[in-house]
Amino acid sequence: MRELSDFDEMYQEVIIDHYKNPRNKSKLPNFTDEVMSHNPFCGDEIELQLNIKDNVIIDVSVSGRGCAISQSSGSLLGETIAGKTVIEAKNDNNSMRALLKDENLSEEQFDSLDDSTVIEGVKKFPVRIKCALLSWSALNDILNKY
Ligand code: ZN
User: Which of 2, 29, 62, 117 shows a CA-CA span of 20 to 30 A to 73?
Assistant: First the structure.
């Protein structure tokens, strides 16, 4: 995992943990939305399923294959948005993009992203930003319908 060598050690640990033990990987028996995203650059795939009821994301499934950044970012995304409203998840999505553009986030935005902020270090590797945002793009595709 050469791409992780410049990450802070603490961040590396979280990213590797989510890569090796992805959360919310099981497919949902009931879901309202499903999107498959693909990053041709390094062959990453993310399949995102959401179960949205009354504008709240009550269940999340994130699965896929690919590089450590894409897969751990997806796993972290699931934990970040589970239980949130569509509006809150849209805000997180915008915050995540701002974070990777090196824009300043408010404390509230930062807190809302929770552990997903560990992905921030990827901004040092522009070519990897697409990997980090693959799952967030899938989320965008779904939330745009709401
Ligand atoms: Zn990748």
Answer: 29
pTM for the predicted model, two decimal places = 0.93
- Residue 17 CA to ligand 1 centre (angstroms): 17
| Residue 110: how many other CB atoms lie within 10 Å | 15
Cα angle, residue 139 at apex, residues 37 and 95 outer, rounded to 5°: 125
Rounded to the nearest angstrom, the distance between the alpha carbon of 86 and the centre of ligand 1 is 26
| Count of structural domains within the chain | 1
Distance between Cα 63 and ligand 1 center (Å): 14
Express each pLDDT in 37-95 by its tens digit.
999 988 999 999 999 999 999 999 999 999 999 999 999 999 999 999 999 999 999 99
CA distance 15 to 125: 15
Domain that includes residue 13, residue range:
2-143
Going from the Cα of 115 to the center of ligand 1, the distance in angstroms, rounded, reads 19
* Distance of CA 19 from the midpoint of ligand 1 (Å): 12
